[in-house]
Amino acid sequence: MENILKSEMGFQPTQPMLPTLFTVDSKIQETHDTWSLFLNNSNGNSLQEFSPGQFNMLYAYGVGEVPISISGNCQNQNSLVHTIRNVGMVSNALCGLNQGDQVGVRGPFGTSWPMEKFKGKDVIIVSGGIGLAPLRPAVYHILNNRDDYNHVALAYGARAPEEILYPKQIMEWRSHLDLQVRVTVDSSDQKWHGQVGVVTTLIPRLNIDPDNAVALVCGPEVMIRFGVRELIKYGLDTDQIWVSMERNMKCGIGLCGHCQLGPDFICKDGAVYNYVKAERFFKTKEL
Amino acid sequence: MEIKHLPHDKLNDLFDAIIMSDYTLVGPKEKDGVISYDPIESVDDLPQGIIDHQNPGNYALQKTESSRFFAYTISPFSWKKFLYPPTHSLFKATKNENGISFKVNKDEPKYAFIGVRGCEMTAIAIQDKVFMGGDYIDPSYKKRREQALIVGVECYNTCETCFCDSVGSGPEIPEGSDIVLTEIIEKENHYFLVRSETEKGQNILNQLNLEKADETQSMIKDAQLERVRSQLKRKVKVSGLQSKLKENPNHPRWDEVAERCLACTNCTMVCPTCFCMTVEDINDLDGNTERQRRWDSCFSSEFTYIHGGNTRSSTKAKYRQWLTHKFATWQDQFDSLGCVGCGRCITWCPPGIDITEEVAALSESPDTYHKKESSHG
Amino acid sequence: MADQITQQLLEHPIFKGMSFSAISDIIRCASEKTFSRSETIFLEGENAQHCYLILRGSVDLSIHTHNRGPITIQSLHGGDVLGWSWLFSPFIWHFDAIAKEKTNTIRLDGQSIRKICQEDSKIGYELMKRFSRVMQERLMATRLQLVDMYGKYS
To answer: Which chain B residue is nearest to residue A264, measuring alpha carbons?
Structure first.
């Protein structure tokens, strides 16, 4: 009685809960609890296009499925890149995958950072912790199309120096003379010679024209709230700020109900929002 | 649309015609002390003469002398359990040296629902929008829904908990059903008025040799419906409610209702429109796995869990989410109310929280609102 | 030299917008002080005699732990104010301050500033408002650090 449907064609909207199989091409450990997986379509098909800020649902065989943002370069897609923090059963299974292992992928889902809209603007990227992963495609996009953007600044905060995500890449970005890269950690011992303090303290010292700027903010929700406050103090209006929200998601397609926040399904109406729309999410506790 | 006359002893002919068209017949049946919706074989399975008494936190059946097949008002179950089953396989997967492979079951049962009420037809239409109206369509729901035959039966009685009229979902059966029946008993005369609403329904009725109903019979039907409408005691004032709920997330009533609410999830399980689900992976000892979809509830403890904790953990916030969704944010999402006034959540709430009473209290200005004794508390 | 200090004081965020006449008394208790890389500016437990207005460079504020050595809790830069223990009895530094690179500061004599504020309540109130603002911002940042927002449970 069972029809066999091999998931060969990439993500199929007719079976939106059925993953496509990908194979782990390589894997690197980013921090003590975070790994990046580089995936290729198991059937050799080309990769699904995505926009910076979008996410996939990643399925670990027999364990479960979680939303993970795409953290690779959307213009140079040798492989599908996901950076995963090992914080639960499914992410633990994903982080434990090795080269040659298979993983299920559904997506890409959700809204994206509107990079087209940002053309000609100064861009401030504010991120903290693992929040840099969904913003990395935006940084790649800017570097791929550097002429489209004016001054660009990245303000990144981590808990401690050893928890800084993509340190080699950040150093590479630092070597770009037209990219302001500022990194801070919440606290550190004396081996760290960089900035200490929360990520919001980086904002006042950026060299950006607030009147012509846009800001992209992603990190823990507390960081987003205080980051936005600091950006407004710096001179940005709320409509110049975009944020990425996080909620429990079981389907990614607006059917499971888990990610509802007021009238929105974060999986399809978000996760990236202009702050004018996102502001109401922060006004009511436990919305 | 022509109204036909179906003598009560020919009801089984209608059932047979439906069965002959390869449908699995599902209808009301007395089971475990309630009216259940389950597979039936003939009119003998129908709960003849049984009426249901429903009050906040209370449900009881009573056997009467009436020969009426559809004397009860509404079952605790809704048709959701057939169109969107409580557990459903999304795919099965196996893993061997060649890698992982998936299997999807695309076969879905073909149901005929007997006895769909006005509020229930509205609920089905609401879930249609959820599962088939957006960018992503639930393939299992779509297939079950499209191949289902819906036979509506108009209400004859109401329960204390009903409030369909005030939310515009009944008692008349709205568009969407294939066949509509009205059961009438005048003196010795026990019959049904029948009309088809779709070609699918007409094809079934064509197999029966039915006479046209006379006009006085149609008038009896209309009067019966108006009597049912006038018997509805509860109501919800919908106008202006959406903005009131959204604007007052800290209304003192939320704290009060949270003191009574057990977050037991009963209201969401019996609700015919609630659609939340979660997924589970079931593994066997041979290393095979199956991913299942299961009904979930916004009241369940880990519903909003993200790394670090739940984003909605207090009962106050959960109840606020549920009720605000039903009457306010559902309108933003699906352009309709998420409540059909069936009253199931009132009946099956262990402490008897009455959603109509909560809505009335929440409609009062939070500034002038005074704590009152709940009439059912 | 004095003119240069006046200019630097007027431009520093802490005094920005104040008139020359308002800060003329303050200028009299200000002097330039430059620290070389890794030089200690003050240590926990020492008498807090001065307030430092950082012009250029950077300074780490740290606290010494018995098992992990010094832990940096905040970095300060040009435009920041370093230290307010000189404002409050018993005038003792609570943290260590080390110049991370060559750092130019203007050093204000704490006792003299306190005297100015005591005698002229108008300027005293203005200065207190400005220092309180700095403290409020630092407190907010500290509270955010307390949340441990990137930590195990967030």
So the answer is: B333
Domain boundary assignment for chain A:
20-109, 122-244
Fold of A20-109: Elongation Factor Tu (Ef-tu); domain 3 (2.40.30)
CA–CA distances in Å: residue B333 to residues A247, A254, A260, B323:
18, 10, 10, 14
Unique residue bearing structure tokens 């041979």: B286
User: Residue B294: beta bridge partners?
Assistant: B87, B278
pTM for this one?
A: 0.90
Amino acid in the structure at residue C8: Q
CB atoms within 10 A of CB B16: 16
* ipTM given for this complex: 0.93
**Could you tell me the residue ranges of all domains in chain C?**
2-147
Please tell me the distance from the alpha carbon of residue A1 to that of residue C54, in angstroms, as a whole number. 78
Give the C-alpha separation, C147 to A148, whole Å: 38
Give residue C65's pLDDT: 80
| A10 touches B: beta carbon within 8 Å | no
All residues of chain B having their beta carbon less than 8 Å from the beta carbon of residue C153 are 308-309
Neighbour subunits, C (≥3 Cβ pairs < 8 A) = A, B
Give tens-digit pLDDT for B242-292. 999 999 999 999 999 999 999 999 999 999 999 999 999 999 999 999 999
Q: Does B307 touch chain A (CB under 8 A)?
A: yes
**CATH class in words for A122-244:** alpha beta
**Interface check A2 vs B, CB under 8 A:** yes
Which pair of structure tokens corresponds to residue A138? 């935006």
Beta bridge partners of B128: none
Chain A residues with beta carbon closer than 8 angstroms to that of B313: 286
pLDDT digits (tens, 9 = 90+) for B26-56: 999 999 999 999 999 999 999 999 999 999 9
Q: With CB atoms and an 8 Å threshold, state whether C77 touches A205.
A: yes
* C68·A189 Cβ contact <8 A: yes
Model pLDDT for residues A104-122, shown as the tens digit of each residue: 999 999 999 999 999 999 9
Which pairs from B126-129 meet CB under 8 Å and 24+ separation?
A: B126/B273, B126/B334, B126/B336, B126/B337, B126/B338, B126/B340, B127/B80, B127/B83, B127/B84, B127/B272, B127/B273, B127/B275, B129/B334, B129/B335, B129/B336
For residue A286, list chain B residues with Cβ-Cβ distance below 8 A: 311-314, 316-317
Closest by Cβ to A42, choosing from B99, B306, B316: B99
- Cα(C70)–Cα(C57) distance, rounded to whole angstroms? 20
Q: What is the pLDDT of residues C48-74, one digit of tens each?
A: 999 999 999 999 999 888 777 888 989
Residue C146 is predicted with a pLDDT of 84
Strands A152-158 and A122-128: parallel
**Fold for the domain defined by C2-147:** Jelly Rolls (2.60.120)
Q: Compute the distance between CA of residue B15 and CA of residue B205 in angstroms, rounded to an integer.
A: 10
What are residue B25's DSSP bridge partners?
B112
User: Which token pair is A220?
Assistant: 């823990």
Across residues A171-176, what is the average pLDDT? 95
Nearest CA-CA distance, residue B307 and chain C, Å: 6
- Compute the distance between CA of residue A110 and CA of residue A54 in angstroms, rounded to an integer: 5
- Measured from the Cβ of residue B107, the count of other Cβ atoms closer than 10 Å reads 10
Q: Cα(first)–Cα(last) distance of chain A, in Å? A: 44
Q: Tell me the torsion sign for CA atoms A94, A99, A105, A109.
A: positive
Which among B248, B233, B263 is positioned nearest to B327, based on CA atoms? B248
* C-beta separation of B263 from B320 below 8 A: no
